[in-house]
Design goal:
heterodimer; A: mainly alpha; MetI-like fold; B: alpha/beta; 4-stranded antiparallel β-sheet; 10 strands; disordered C terminus
């Protein structure tokens, strides 16, 4: 924050204007600085205590060194690829099942009344609880993990889509029917565009939950992915690498969320302001 | 364009055994005729309009448009509502062309027809504008263009101007009646506004409630376009007012009933 401000000083008259441009970036950067500082203090604490000295590599310095090294190796990229594939596949199935299900539940109030209780019940079961069952059903670990991601992603998508359909202005249906729309045209021209935003909001929630569930799911059985990489680093006592993977998980999670937000803006038909 | 509408012995209950909403409605509307259904809230005038549109089936009797019984909605008999219900994810053009898109028209045909319609309703310069940025009157014009796009034989208006300010309402009333006259479209308007009835109708059907029925009819018989300031207009309005009062043996209605408020105000003036 301060460095940015001092750099702006030579152009003294333009100072407020420049600050206004920089400020939106400065605050988040300041937040990150605080986080790094706390992390660094934590590292100092670990290093200062003889009992925890062996964990001093959790600190920022060793972590960034390890991260830099790992970015040049294929192992990290393979792990990222494996994890992204799993979350992509899980979300794909989640959307493929969740969107039609959500539209159905939102459109027919009877379906809503029937589905609400069982779905609320299923929703509250941790996706990881399905693990033993998933392992029995799917012959590959990959399949089992994709299934767990699906179970995590499904509910936010279903509920958000159903909620969106329920909120559709009844006038829109009436007008479309009046203009001679058949069911398919109604779906394509009215229902889907009307709930696109709610669907994307559901997918955004799903991405969040799925990304959180993915790492523990990868602790089990598989030998690839970011969750496995964390476990592997722990087993080899490479704590710097472990923290580096945690950083990577955070960054990718943030990036995925940003993509969702971008898509939500893209499909937002509400006039702002 | 234009088509006859015949209402044949229509009676309606929402459920068997429930109160009769409409009873023995019978009328022949000529092709190209402009008819207004007027009555208090709850007299079933809007229900009747929904039946003409094919959005609701009467439990007895039938509606025929151009001799064919109505069983479903169609872009050929098109209804406009109080709310324009434009689709906010489409711009003005796409909203207007939607009925044509549903009918499977080619892109070039849609574009040509939409341009022509936007010209007609005076929104040619708003073609690519977001519909949410339009005023209420402009939105209703877009809805009008959307309804006209499919070259309907019949246009049905369900109090479509009641949410607009007085000036916008007056100009749209004249315009819609004018456009329908020009294109020969049969126009049926539902309203509770005496002035609107005289402004837009060749013939007014006065409805009474409990059960909903056509109680009397009035031929307006004034030349188009109507001039609300003329003596003849005022005379017609008074005549309709009198019919209305006979029809309902008017008892003072509670203040919150907007129909009642309007009627009293008109009769005092």
């Amino acid at each position: 924050m301060n460095t940015l401000a001092s750099r702006a000083r030579p152009a003294a008259p333009a100072w407020p204007a420049l600050w206004r441009r920089v400020a939106p970036l400065a605050w988040p950067l300041g937040g990150i600085a605080v986080m790094l500082f706390v992390w660094w203090l934590g590292g100092l604490y670990l290093a200062s205590n003889p009992e925890t000295m062996m964990f001093a590599n959790f600190a920022p310095g060793p972590t960034f060194a390890a991260l830099w090294r790992m970015l040049g190796e294929t192992a990290l990229w393979d792990a990222i690829g494996a994890s992204l594939y799993r979350i992509g596949a899980g979300l794909f199935w989640g959307a493929l099942i969740g969107i039609p299900l959500g539209i159905l539940i939102g459109y027919f109030s009877l379906a809503m009344r029937m589905a609400n209780l069982p779905f609320q019940f299923l929703r509250m079961i941790s996706p990881l609880a399905w693990m033993p069952l998933a392992v029995l059903i799917f012959d590959s670990w990959d399949g089992a993990i994709v299934f767990l991601i699906l179970m995590a992603a499904l509910w936010p998508i279903v509920f958000s889509t159903a909620h969106g359909v329920k909120r559709i202005d009844p006038g829109w249906f009436k007008v479309a029917r009046n203009l001679g729309a058949d069911s398919l045209q109604m779906l394509r021209r009215v229902i889907l565009p009307a709930v696109m935003m709610d669907m994307m909001a559901g997918i955004r929630l799903a991405v969040g939950v799925a990304w959180v569930v993915l790492v523990p799911a990868e602790y089990l059985g598989v030998t690839s992915g970011l969750g496995y990489a964390i476990n592997d680093a722990r087993d080899t006592l490479d704590y710097a690498a472990l923290t580096a993977v945690v950083l990577v998980i955070g960054v990718i999670g943030y990036a995925l969320d940003s993509v969702c937000v971008m898509l939500m803006r893209r499909f937002n038909w509400q006039l702002e302001g | 364009m234009g088509a006859t509408i015949s209402l044949n012995a229509i009676s309606h209950r929402y459920k068997p055994g429930a109160a009769t909403v409409l009873e023995d409605i019978d009328d022949q509307i000529k092709s190209g005729e402009r008819v207004v259904l007027i009555g208090r809230s709850g007299c079933g005038k809007s229900t009747l309009l929904h039946m003409i549109a094919g959005l609701l089936m009467p439990s007895d009797g039938c509606v025929k448009i151009g001799g064919r019984q109505i069983t479903r909605p169609s872009a050929k008999w098109n209804m406009m509502f109080q709310k324009p219900s434009l689709y906010p994810w489409m711009n003005v053009r796409d909203n207007v062309g939607l009925g044509l898109l549903f009918a499977g028209a080619s892109k070039a045909d849609i574009a040509e027809r939409v341009d022509q319609l936007l010209e007609m309703v005076g929104l040619a310069d708003k073609s690519r504008v977001n519909v949410q940025s339009l005023s209420g009157g402009q939105q209703q014009r877009v809805a009008l263009a959307r309804s006209l796009a499919t070259r309907p034989d019949v246009l049905l208006l369900d109090e479509p101007f009641s949410a607009l300010d007085a000036f916008t309402r007056a100009s749209l009333q004249q315009e819609v009646a004018g456009i329908c006259g020009e294109l020969g479209i049969t126009l049926v308007t539902v309203t509770h506004d005496i002035d609107e009835a005289i402004l837009m109708a060749d013939r007014v059907l006065i409805m009474a409630q409990n059960p909903g029925r056509i109680e009397s009819r009035l031929e307006v018989g004034l030349p188009w376009p109507r001039d609300p300031a003329s003596n003849e207009f005022q005379q017609r309005r008074r005549a309709l007012m009198d019919l209305f009062q006979q029809t309902d043996s008017v008892t003072p209605l509670p203040e919150k009933d907007r129909d009642g408020g309007r009627l009293r105000r008109v009769s005092n003036g």
